[in-house]
Amino acid sequence: MKDGGGLVLVCDDTEQIRTLMSINLKLEGYDVEEVGDGQELLERLQRPGARRPRVITLDAHMEPRDGWWAIRHIREDPTLADIPVIMVTASVQQHDRIQAGEEGFDAFVAKPFDPDYLLELVHGFVARGRSYAPEP
């Protein structure tokens, strides 16, 4: 997808993780913006005139506002609710996966993650929006 896949927002409190995701996404033709926590993500999304992302990757555990807080705000805002959001987290218990689905995440990726799988998810969501149904 080297033809410009649109904007992906990467939200993680670990700079190395953000950098790894950004490099892989940029190599596939995506524009990438990075933010460090859920509060920064919401501020970025709600900034007047801000470019709308095609997909958001979101870590679960960050300070001061985590991914659980951010997804609730995204899904409650009618101007943001249709953006696909991929949880990328080290929380890999079954109850985390279930909660992620209940809270409105569209996909769940466990850290350490396979960059090819993450790219496959992003490609699918860019092509089909939230209707994309990836294999678990």
Short key terms for the protein model shown above:
136 residues; alpha/beta; 5 helices; globular
Describe what this molecule looks like in 3D.
The protein is an alpha/beta fold and 136 residues long. The chain has a domain of 56 residues. It is 41% helix and 17% strand. The chain is built from 5 helices and 5 strands; from the N terminus they run E-H-E-H-E-H-E-H-E-H. A 5-stranded parallel beta sheet has the order 2-1-3-4-5, with helices on both faces. Strand 3, helix 3 and strand 4 form a beta-alpha-beta unit. Helix 2 packs parallel to helix 3. The radius of gyration is 13 Å and the shape is globular. The model has no long low-confidence stretch (mean pLDDT 91).
Main sheet properties: 5 strands, parallel
Order of helices and strands: EHEHEHEHEH
Q: What's the pLDDT, averaged over the residues?
A: 91
Rg measurement, Å:
13 Å
What is the percent of helical residues? 40-55%
Order of strands across the main sheet: 2-1-3-4-5
* Total of DSSP H or I helical runs spanning 4+ residues: 5
| DSSP strand content | 15-25%
Low-confidence stretches: none
Q: Tell me the overall shape.
A: globular
Strands, count: 5
Report the structural category: alpha/beta
End-to-end Cα distance:
23 Å
